[in-house]
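Major facilitator superfamily domain containing 3
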Amino acid sequence: MSVKYWLLFLLYFVQGIPYGLQSGLLPIYFRTVGLSFTKISLTKLLYLPWFFKVFWAPFVDWYFSKKSWLIFTMCSLALTCLACSFLTPEKDFLGVAVVLLLMNIFASVQDVAADGIAIQLLGPEEVGFGNSIQVVAYKLGSVLAGGGLLTFLHHLGWGALFVYLALIYAAAIGFTSKFHLRASRQDSQAKESNLGLLGFFHELLLVPDTLWTAGLVLIYKLGEQGSVSMFPLFLLDHSFSPQKLGFWNGIVATTFSIAGSSLGGQLMSEAEFSFPIKGNVYKVRVGMRGPWCSLSLAVFLQTFHYLTR
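Tokens:
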């Protein structure tokens, strides 16, 4: 595998750390130290920077280089991890929330820069394999920060956990700083463009199928987050240990997700799917996530309730 693929792997690996931390580890940790469901649910508001990412994405294109943005955001993420290592959620919940909000801001900016780097490095015939690497690396980063660290949290402790994450970011900074990236033609065109922010959004909306695609992704992600975010907390309140949750809900579940992403990327790189085939795949996926998923979950919960009475 060439160096550019390793760079993409590393960038998306560290990009998945904040998500895994906040979706997999922190809700369970907060619950084990006695925080209410209300406070835990309110932490989802810390994801808002990702919603507003579209507003500062043009500035990442217009000012400085993608590499400069990557170095800046990863340095900032390392500092936020170090800051979080000095706080304790039980006593400094507001401080931890502020640090996590900053982490999401920097991670969302890094996402814009990393996507720009991916577009710059990958040719048309490399997009399928490159996208597979991006998704797999992101999920590996999330499973490390979520299920992996949750499994060993009682051995590491809160402070040491964030110190280790800061060291991972430091290693990523060192690798990225040594990688030479040329300015692409798209970067030059973006910097020379006279479009303002409103003009940028106008051009974006002129791209065919932009609105329905954005709506589809929004509905899908809302449903996904709503269905999976509270389930681990339910299991925690029904005698599952954090270590078991970290292993099954974090490592095992994400391993299956990574396998599916790898298979999808391989299929996309080997064959050019037509839209009707993609549409049928989407229908199957929606169907599986809908009634069959709900039925399976209901059967599991009833069985679990019966066995633990």
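Residues 273-295 have pLDDT under 50 and may be disordered.
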